[in-house]
Amino acid sequence: MSELFDEVDEEVRREQFKKLWDKYSIVFIALMVLIVAAAAGWQGYKYLEAKKAAEAGAAFEKAVELSEQNKHAEAETAFTELVAKAPSGYRTLARLRAAAEAAARDPKAAAKMYDDIAADRSVGGEWQDLAKIRAAGLLVDSASYADMQQRLESSAAPKSTFRHSAREMLALSAWRNNDATAARKWLDAIAEDGETPSSLRSRAEALQALLPPVAKS
Questions:
Q1: Name one Pfam family in it (predicted).
Q2: Which of 47, 57, 94, 179 could form a disulfide with 79 if both were Cys (CB 3.0 to 4.6 A apart)?
Q3: Full residue range of the structural domain in which residue 171 is found
Q4: Residues 204 and 153 in one domain
Q5: Are residue 85 and residue 135 in the same domain, yes or no?
């Protein structure tokens, strides 16, 4: 008798499953098709992105070769073209290199290119700071100390990645603009930072020797 009940239950389950299948089979099949299509689309997207990255890498290397051959105008054009079409990582590198190549023909124009990168939050904080340092390096001989201070003071803060370079340029700018007090401030910051590179420390000591002695009270 129990076997009979089992058979009846099995038949009921089959009938229920058949009704569910008849009702929802189209939805189930469509869902499976969507899953397969999404997986194929994702794989295709990854392939295209990898292809773009490989092409950008090859183009970047060619532009670097032009630069190493002192073909700066051609290298600048190549890097500028990469900015327009490369994936984001290569795009930022290409912007920095294009500015570096422009420096050979027009330092002020190159500084403006670096300033644009520094103002672009999408590139990331460290790239922005690097662009600030590069721009300041092009202008340190001509800009006022106030301008350099505005550009670099935040980058000279403790623990900032490029603080050593920022402090050196601020000290040099202050010295060039006859502000011995400001120059000593940044030279002291260089001397007191235990992580200051030895070569920079030596340059700072040499600049310190050029400053007038502190007046005794």
A1: TPR_21
A2: 94
A3: 144-212
A4: yes
A5: yes
